[in-house]
Amino acid sequence: MASMNVSLPDPMRDYVQSRIDSGHYASVSDYVRDLIRRDQSEVVDEERWLKELDASIEEGLKEMEAGGGHDLDEACDAIIANLRDTADRKQH
């Protein structure tokens, strides 16, 4: 296993030591390995989310090209009109 040296400001070093002293981690190395695993997991989750978003956008574009979907301006106008009607009914 390779080793790395890391320099930390005193408050960060103290925090890491407090996590070890509280029993959450066995050592500084254990703490750093956990942080790296969490970061790797977040990167994988973000990549998955972006791929799903791209697929969803592609699906929406295909639907729009096929004549499906709704015009955004018309949908927003309808929502605003509905909100105004609701507000008017509450005032009377």
UniProtKB/TrEMBL annotation:
<keyword id="KW-1277">Toxin-antitoxin system</keyword>
<comment type="similarity">
    <text>Belongs to the ParD antitoxin family.</text>
</comment>
<dbReference type="InterPro" id="IPR010985">
    <property type="entry name" value="Ribbon_hlx_hlx"/>
</dbReference>
<dbReference type="InterPro" id="IPR038296">
    <property type="entry name" value="ParD_sf"/>
</dbReference>
<protein>
    <submittedName>
        <fullName>Type II toxin-antitoxin system ParD family antitoxin</fullName>
    </submittedName>
</protein>
<dbReference type="InterPro" id="IPR022789">
    <property type="entry name" value="ParD"/>
</dbReference>
<dbReference type="GO" id="GO:0006355">
    <property type="term" value="P:regulation of DNA-templated transcription"/>
</dbReference>
